[in-house]
Design a protein that fits this description.
globular, 348 residues, two-stranded antiparallel ribbon, 16 helices, mainly alpha, ABC transporter involved in vitamin B12 uptake, BtuC
């Protein structure tokens, strides 16, 4: 768990290496940081448009929805679960919001409706997973089909214009910063505090590490799973509203692929598909890398379908890294790196 890892890091003696003051958790994120810097540096060398305030705002707006969904995915992965329906649910909620806007509903009513629908969906999914012990893979895959079909039916197979509904949230600025980015930052901070300092966060890591052990230790496993699915779905509700504001319409296919990108971002950031690991900072870096790659491809004039290729390759790399991590190969490489940098490894 993060708290345990941090305490271990604090207890480790420092040696004279150049990175002696950096925590072990930060060193594990160095490859991701290097990749992010490399992509940014190459793009900046090819076009002057990359390092501009306008492009920064655009980039933040582009990754906001993915960042919100990836945060919820990190919470689920910490407990050894995931949700493949979040992209379709976000699209469905954007359509619901657009339909309400067309009927004259205000933004507060739309927000409450979207959040309410998201909460109901999360509680239902979490209850089925927790109480009936159904695997989340097949269940959420089926739910994704249901949500996608409902979105297409409600929208009539085409985007539903929503005028300027939530335009300030999707495309505007707050305090001189992209409003979607401000919302994302708030959610990231709250999620990090939840994982690190609350009982629910500690229980999530415990369930992900070993559900049977957690149960024997008195952890309310069913309630933890339901709560995590509910929180994740509430974040999908926020993402759906931001998506509506950004697109200016409820798009029934606007969330396609977001679930896989969210998983890729979380796994790149150190989360494990097997559970027991995951950090909000790592997920943020994973989201930033995916967003920067997409932004770079756009600025460099690369055809749009290559973005899906890039996302697929990143997802494959993330899965391979997870497998290597599970087999201890990355830990061995990390200890070797720390030794070369002057920090002796520690037996576990």
């Amino acid at each position: 768990m993060n708290a345990v890892a941090d305490s271990e890091t604090a207890a480790q003696p420092k040696s004279g290496g150049p990175l002696r003051w950096l925590p072990r958790s930060f060193i594990s994120l160095l490859p991701l940081i290097v990749a992010l810097i490399a992509v940014g540096a190459y793009t900046a060398s090819q076009t002057d448009l990359f390092l501009t305030s306008q492009n920064f705002s655009t980039l933040v707006q582009q990754i906001a929805v993915l960042g919100v969904l990836a945060t919820g995915t990190t919470l689920l992965l910490a407990a050894g679960m995931f949700d493949l329906s979040i992209g379709a649910l976000a699209a469905l909620l954007s359509v619901i919001g657009a339909k309400l806007a067309v009927n004259g509903s205000g933004e507060l009513t739309i927000l409450l409706a979207c959040m309410g629908c998201a909460l109901v969906a999360g509680v239902i999914t979490g209850s089925i997973v927790a109480l009936l012990r159904v695997g989340p893979f097949i269940l959420t895959l089926g739910a994704a089909s249901v949500y996608a079909s409902l979105a297409l039916v409600l929208a009539g197979g085409r985007p539903v214009p929503a005028s300027d509904t939530f335009a300030t949230l999707g495309l505007g600025d707050w305090f001189g910063l992209p409003s979607a980015g401000v919302v994302l930052a708030g959610i990231l901070i709250l999620a990090a505090l939840l994982l690190r300092y609350t009982r629910l966060g500690r229980n999530a890591y415990a369930v992900g590490s070993s559900e049977d052990t957690a149960y024997l230790a008195g952890v309310p496993v069913a309630r933890v799973k339901i709560a995590l699915f509910a929180i994740s779905s509430l974040l999908v509700g926020v993402g759906g509203v931001i998506l509506l504001g950004r697109l200016g319409a409820g798009d029934p296919v606007g969330g396609a692929g977001l679930e896989l990108q969210a998983i890729a971002a979380a796994v790149l950031g150190g989360a494990s598909l097997g559970g027991g690991r995951g950090s909000i900072l790592g997920t943020l870096l994973g989201v930033a890398l995916l967003g920067t790659i997409a932004n770079a491809l756009t600025l460099l004039g690369v055809q749009a379908f290559w973005q899906q290729f890039a996302y697929g390759m990143v997802l494959i790399i993330a899965v391979v890294l997870t497998a290597l991590r599970e087999h201890g190969l990355l830990a061995h490489a990390r200890r070797a790196l720390e030794t070369r940098l002057g920090r002796p490894g520690h037996a576990r």
